[in-house]
Amino acid sequence: MTAAAVPSLERQQVLAGLGSSGRGLSADEAAARRAEIGANQLPAPRRRPVLAEFGAQFANMFAVVLMVAAGITFLAYALTTPRSSANLVLAIGILGVVLLNAVIGFAQEHAAERTAEALQALVPATARVIRDGELTEIPAVDLVPGDLVMLDAGDAISADCRLIDAHDLLVEMAALTGESRPTPRICDAVPQAQVADARNCVFMGTSVVNGSGRAVVFATGLATEFGRIYRLTAEMPSEDSPLQREVTVMARRVAAVAIAAGLGLFAIRALASNDVVGSFVFALGVMVALVPEGLPATMSVSLAVAVRRMARRHALIKRLTAVEALGSTTVICTDKTGTLTKAEMTVQAVWESGRDHGVTGVGYTPDGEVTEAGCAGDVLRAGGLCCDARLVPPDPVRRQGWRVLGDTTEGAILVAAAKGGVDLAAEQDRTPRVAVFPFDADRKLMSTVHPLGGGSYEACVKGSPQAVLERCAAVRWLGQDVPLDETLRKRVTSANDAMAADGLRVLAVARRDLATEAPSGASARSRPCPGLHRVRHCHRRVRADHRQPAHPDTAPSHARATSDLRQRGDAARPVRGPRLPGRAAGGRVQRARRDRRGGAEPGGALQDPRGVDAAGGR
Known about the structure:
Helix content: 25-40%
CATH class of the largest domain: Alpha Beta
CATH architecture of the largest domain: 3-Layer(aba) Sandwich
Low-confidence stretches: 518-547, 577-618
Distance between the termini: 38 Å
Number of helices: 19
């Protein structure tokens, strides 16, 4: 079976085509396929012998010029009568400089490569598979096409797989697409879909953020989408850094000037004195004197100091010359999530009854408050009940702070509910969830059903403001349910547009009382709920800020970098998505420049209401 055909086939067809079943592969069949196909890993870069690594340090133009200068000095020592020990000392000194420069570069690069290998060895990759009908954990390198893989939140995906079952499954695809927001996955067939775009496939290098599922492996190693990217990058020829190119040009110019000066002085002195040997030795001395033999050692020591400084900031530099490359940067295109920011979402305000309720605090720590929390409590309660994420308290042993398991947007809602005084744990015990309708790209909604007692139920809904609003017949306004007429609908729409114009991610929250029996949770996952086609009572609107808290290390650094570029006359240009309005896209870089002058608070939020991510777009 070809990988291109996998997305368009039904689940049983995929299993049959890959020679697998619900019991997975047998141990013997898996071993045979492993021997035939090979290990599920990308080939390691070819490692040069240690002597070859050390010899490469002498392959640059400046080292060649210095070695030639040392040879010329030895020649001058041999030709002079009586022989001058000064020439011998100079030749040895030049060779010593070349050797010192090579030792510094080799030691740093060799240590960095060994450190990178050690870090990779500290994280052994495993996968949970079903073989012979039994769940077992195996090394990821032993995965073969046809293996049935179990997926849960937090799992790293080690091969390209076709989903067989999926329950609220969200996968983080940043390694392939660059998009930090998790994408929902389905298990149904997707006709005429490219493998890389198929919503029923998961890929090597990605990870499960939420939900669970089963998937069958259809590609491993270099046959995966990640392997295809690896092949493309491996085929790219290596290039010298800007510093290496400049040093090479300078070395050629120095050599040309030294040779020209030596030849000229030799000709003039030989014609004037008729002493050919003496003139030749004199010309050799001039040529050697024109070579700056101390420059390579000075550069190596300076770069080594810079590498050490970067190491103290937890940056691993493999090559000395790479640390200088940032000095030649003219445009910085950076994904903010996890770099400029901390990959955390924060609710900034709740809108209800025409009023904004500000939310203080940053990140997932539930420290802060909601303005007039009593009025916004119903919104936060309904939004919190309609979340699958979980807020995890700090773990001092692992040195972990407050964090979220699941979708970051849902985590922000949970934190906002805690700030507003809503005890979601008590609410979930009082009204446990009996059915869930996961977010669907067509509905653009997520819905949950909870019992209220006496045979009645309530439905809590959150999702796209447009999708929620078109299903609403009423709005709760100042504590009363009033018809959602055109005037109120325009007010709600205008509030949504204003939030979106400020670069915020906006979610709408709604609820409805259900007098009928709630559908069973098992079957409700896969079929529409008749009672949720029209949501009668539209609650207030929640807005969650997509501008995550600024990362305490990289945000100030980026601010300094953009400021330095501007001072040099280079452009610091924001890169943004096509759907963001221009006025919301420019503020973040302006904010960065202000932080360059006034100082950015480590870990603080970038509070400019018009600022959005400097790159990434949404």
